[in-house]
Amino acid sequence: MLSTNQEQIFNDFGFIVLRKIFDKKEISFINSEFNSGLNIAEKSMSRAHIRKQLNWSNLKPEYPILSGLLEDDRFTSIAKQILGDDYIGSYSNSNSFSSKVTEWHPDISIRDYDWKGIKFGFYLQTTTSSTGALRLIPGSHKSPFHEQIGDLKFKENIVDADHEGFTVPEIPAFYAESEPGDVVLFNNHTWHASWGGGENRKLCSIGYFANPKNKSQENSATKISQELSSIAKRFPLTIISDNWIDGCKDNPQRKRWIESLTKYGFIKK
């Protein structure tokens, strides 16, 4: 769980860096599973968009360590602390980036969605401000600052970098420089980006959201799942495996998650 001070930092700034969550042995196992997934991804799809990104789900029997992180108490205890008892584990993914830029974006826009969710992200290489470390804008998970940033003109978007506007490094931000084993926790509404770095920057991510409690939240969840289905056409390996779904029979927590993920369209029947 987060300490009282850590929870306040997360709530006020929209993110926090958690140091040394994984030890060297765990990172070695994670790297091995990542490289296996990368080998499959490189044969299955081309690198997409300005990020030159590959993306795949770890919720498969081939990746027991990365898959198991979604149900690991180091993460679920924090998800419960932030999102409440009725939180949903939604994904464990891996990403490979071979571009120097990831454009400024929130995972979920406040303007368009009634949603509460979090992401844990961790790189498998050392990152600095000039070599691809995650950049986050403090307080950008809250209105009206979130929308004010959205009204800015950016040079880069997910497709290209041919626009008039601010480049990624021109926007003031916190650099979440990290070593393998460190984890960045951030709100889905927090604006973030990256700059620099070489080929095959390895990023793993784990996501949770609060189970919808009203019609507005239900509509937002359904809309988000529809958009993710469209993204899956570009990244077909992000689809959750039947093996992970079938594993819920003796796992009440996963069964509850799958019921919600299916209800809102994140898992297709």
Structure description:
- The protein is an alpha+beta fold.
- It has a single domain (4-263), classed as Sandwich (Jelly Rolls).
- 32% of the residues lie in helices and 23% in strands.
- The strands form two sheets. Strands 1-8-5-10-3-2 form a six-stranded antiparallel beta sheet.
- The longest helix is centred in the first third of the chain and has 21 residues, at 24-44.
- It is globular and about 50 Å long.
Class by alpha and beta content: alpha+beta
CATH class: Mainly Beta
Instruction: Please describe the biggest sheet, giving its number of strands, its sense, and whether it closes into a barrel.
Output: 6 strands, antiparallel
Question: Average pLDDT across residues?
Answer: 95
Shape: globular
Q: C-alpha Rg, in Å? A: 18 Å
CATH A-level architecture: Sandwich
Percent strand? 15-25%
Unreliable runs, pLDDT <50, ≥5 residues?
none
How many E-type strands? 10
Q: Helix and strand layout, with pairings?
A:
Layout (H helix, E strand, L loop, with lengths): L3 H10 L1 E4 L5 H21 L8 E5 L6 H5 L4 H11 L3 E11 L3 E5 L11 E7 L7 E6 L8 H6 L23 E3 L6 E5 L4 E5 L4 E10 L4 H17 L10 H5 L5 H12 L6
Antiparallel strand pairs: 1-8, 2-3, 3-10, 4-9, 5-8, 5-10, 6-7, 6-9
Brief digest:
The chain has one domain (4-263): Jelly Rolls, CATH 2.60.120.
Structural key phrases:
269 residues, alpha+beta, Jelly Rolls, 4-stranded antiparallel β-sheet, 10 strands, globular
